[in-house]
Amino acid sequence: MGYFLLSAETSFSAAHTLPGVPLCERFHGHNWTVRLTVRMEENKLAANGMGVDFRDIETAITQATAEFDHQYLNEIPPFNTVPPTAENIARLVSERVTSQFTDNHNIAIEEVEIWEAAQYRVVYRPG
Ligand SMILES: [Zn+2]
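Above: query sequence and zinc ion SMILES. Below: predicted holo structure tokens.
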């Protein structure tokens, strides 16, 4: 059976430090881009021909990352104890969206992508 992949993006600006990592251990910031891609089996398509509204996907990731905007990530749980890397942010976004969004919409998370810069991206696919 086929399936659909639907994506939306949001972004936030935040600072972090990554202790022990050359260059990254210095205080600096990024304009992070977050893309959530959800998967819907084709037999779950609604009668109106849509999987899930793009705006709903956008809202889900915007809410999952809202507390990070214009903050120093190392001060915000869980990043006061877990390094605020793109990898850990991607996994946290996946966990938040799973509990607050995908369980109610006949969709599953395919992947969460985080860019710290145009040329640097992490992809997290929940197991
Ligand atoms: Zn950085």
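Residues 56 and 101 are 9 Å apart (CA to CA).
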